[in-house]
């Protein structure tokens, strides 16, 4: 309590990622848990072995601590079983002078000190024993990665060269990639760790790097011959993420590595679709120069052109139209790009489409035309533009309503005046 009153950081973690909340949870110390939560302790952190405070409370069978943490929004990934040996003996909240590293090997503790010299000073076991007998070698590398210590990583891999020949270093690589630790990633790759490593959830390293917008690490992985094509469990590729985030450098790197242009995610969307939706003229231009198709709608039938219209990305709309994007392509509900642009209230996109002779009287599955939609929205500017373009005023939708009818129903007098004039 004295430390909290003095302003101590309640979320400070040791090199193993263990926070005060994890200590209290593992010991079932509800009083301390309550004080920490009242002091805004974060329930989300996970340690290097991916355990949260709630994981420790559940593992300890601390029912009241578990309830308090769940009520505070905590989540767990392990719902049964004991905590790992390397962590289990760490937490003795009621014991005097607890050893936070009890159960750790000497090499793991040395790795937490960010001291390659300390690692090198430790006696070596028989060749291969550190990595083959137990996951201590992997834990030590995880700790070194957590400490952002490329030299410690180098020392650990030199000490136990068999580690890099398995997929046991995939988790450290993914951790370093997501954290943006360029030198650590470089060290792991230099020792033979596969650049195509995946997380337990199936996320490829190159996708993780792109998602975190670490363009330099994407380049590093590609230089190490990572495959740019893999997709995560949602079908997302690194190229799609680069397009979503309008990251031209990352996009160029992946395109130079021949990342598949027409790969689809589970929504049927391609990199070009995402670049158009982001309104990224440079990204759209790069993808089109590489041969991306302008006629590749998503699973709802929304094309890249329609996505750009909805986003009010006028320069992108103009470029896609110049490159032959289908103007009359329809969604599953029968909407054309003109109907979607009108519904979004984007006059510049509507003007671009009308200039390309888009069908101004096209109707969707509800029978609505662009004029009916604009009238329903009370959009005077769009109604004026559509009328000037010759949009028909007598077409009725499935409710038997004309554009004037829907404007009257909503008392849009300015719109009604346009029809009477």
Structure description:
With 421 residues, this protein is an all-alpha fold. Among the domains are: 2-88, Serine Threonine Protein Phosphatase 5, Tetratricopeptide repeat (Alpha Horseshoe); 360-421, Serine Threonine Protein Phosphatase 5, Tetratricopeptide repeat (Alpha Horseshoe). The protein is built from 27 helices and no strands. Helix 7 runs parallel beside helix 10 (136-146). Mean pLDDT is 87; it is low at 85-97 and 126-134.
What's the topology here?
Layout: H1 2-5, H2 20-27, H3 30-38, H4 53-59, H5 63-71, H6 85-88, H7 106-112, H8 116-121, H9 129-132, H10 136-146, H11 150-159, H12 170-179, H13 182-190, H14 205-211, H15 215-223, H16 238-244, H17 248-256, H18 271-277, H19 281-289, H20 304-310, H21 314-322, H22 337-344, H23 347-355, H24 370-376, H25 380-388, H26 403-409, H27 413-420
Helix pairs in contact: 2-3, 2-4, 4-5, 7-10, 10-11, 10-12, 11-13, 12-14, 13-15, 14-15, 14-16, 15-17, 16-17, 16-18, 17-19, 18-19, 18-20, 20-21, 20-22, 21-23, 22-23, 22-24, 24-25, 24-26
Features:
421 residues, Serine Threonine Protein Phosphatase 5, Tetratricopeptide repeat, mainly alpha
How much of the polypeptide forms β-strand, as a percent range?
under 5%
Unreliable residue runs: 85-97, 126-134
* Assigned CATH architecture of the domain at 2-88: Alpha Horseshoe
Tertiary shape: elongated
């Amino acid at each position: 309590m004295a430390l909290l009153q003095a302003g101590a950081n309640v979320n400070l973690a040791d090199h193993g990622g263990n926070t005060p909340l994890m200590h209290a949870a593992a010991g079932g110390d509800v009083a301390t848990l309550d004080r920490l939560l009242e002091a805004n302790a974060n329930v989300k952190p996970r340690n290097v072995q991916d355990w949260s405070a709630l994981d420790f409370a559940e593992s300890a069978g601390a029912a009241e601590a578990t309830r308090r943490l769940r009520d505070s929004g905590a989540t767990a990934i392990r719902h049964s079983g004991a905590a790992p040996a390397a962590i289990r003996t760490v937490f003795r909240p009621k014991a005097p002078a607890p050893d936070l590293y009890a159960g750790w090997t000497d090499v793991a503790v040395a790795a937490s000190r960010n001291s390659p010299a300390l690692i090198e000073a430790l006696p070596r076991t028989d060749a291969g024993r550190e990595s083959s007998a137990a996951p201590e070698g992997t834990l030590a590398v995880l700790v070194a990665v957590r400490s952002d210590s490329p030299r410690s990583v180098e020392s650990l891999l030199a000490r136990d060269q068999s580690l890099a020949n398995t997929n046991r270093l995939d988790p450290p690589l993914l951790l370093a990639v997501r954290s943006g630790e360029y030198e650590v990633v470089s060290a792991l790759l230099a020792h033979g760790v596969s650049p195509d490593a995946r997380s337990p959830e199936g996320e490829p390293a190159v996708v993780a790097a792109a998602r975190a917008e670490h363009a330099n690490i994407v380049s590093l992985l590609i230089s190490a011959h990572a495959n740019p094509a893999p997709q995560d469990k949602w079908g997302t590729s690194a190229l799609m993420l680069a397009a979503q985030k309008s990251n031209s450098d990352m996009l160029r790197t992946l395109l130079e590595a021949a990342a598949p242009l027409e790969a689809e995610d589970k929504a049927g969307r391609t990199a070009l679709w995402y670049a158009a939706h982001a309104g990224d003229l440079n990204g759209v231009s790069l993808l089109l120069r590489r041969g991306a198709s302008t006629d590749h709608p998503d699973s709802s039938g929304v094309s890249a052109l329609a996505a750009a219209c909805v986003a009010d990305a006028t320069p992108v709309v103009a470029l896609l139209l110049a490159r032959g994007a289908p103007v009359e392509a329809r969604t599953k509900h029968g909407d054309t790009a003109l109907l979607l642009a009108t519904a979004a209230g984007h006059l510049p996109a509507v003007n671009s489409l009308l200039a390309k002779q888009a069908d101004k009287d096209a109707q969707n599955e509800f029978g609505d035309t662009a004029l009916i939609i604009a009238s329903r929205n009370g959009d005077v500017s769009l109604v004026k533009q559509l009328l000037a373009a010759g949009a028909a005023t007598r077409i009725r939708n499935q409710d038997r309503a004309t554009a004037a009818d829907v404007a009257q129903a909503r008392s849009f007098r300015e719109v009604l005046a346009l029809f009477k004039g």
